[in-house]
Amino acid sequence: MGKCPDCGTWDSLAEQTERKEPAGKGRSAPTNGMNQPIALREVPTGGFERLPVLGEEFSRVLGGGMVPGSLVLIGGDPGIGKSTLLLQAAAQFADQVGPALYISAEESIQQIKLRASRMGLDP
Description:
The chain is mainly alpha-helical and 123 residues long.
C-alpha cells in the first residue's frame, strides 16, 4: 500500500517490526493453579448440587438435573415441542426452586404468554 488511508499522502507509510519476547520472559503468569496443566483424575468433582427439572426423562438427559451456572442447548426440528417442554420446565423450576428466565429468539412475548395460558401455567 503506497497511500496512507488516513491522511491520503503517498509514500508516507513505513514498515515497523515488533520483536516478540521469548517464552518465559516478561511478566510471569499467575500461580493460582488455573493456568497449570492438571491430570483429569486430580480434578475435584464434588460440590455440584443438581437442581430438579421437569420429568424423569428430561432430568436423566441432563445427568440428574441442572447444574447451577450451566447452559443447556435444546435443538430439534420445528414443531417438535422444544418451546413447550422448556416453558413447562421453566414454570416448574420457578414454582419449586426459584426464579427462571425464559429467553426466546424466535417467538414474541405474546406468543409465549398465550402458550403458557393454554397450558394452564401462571404466566
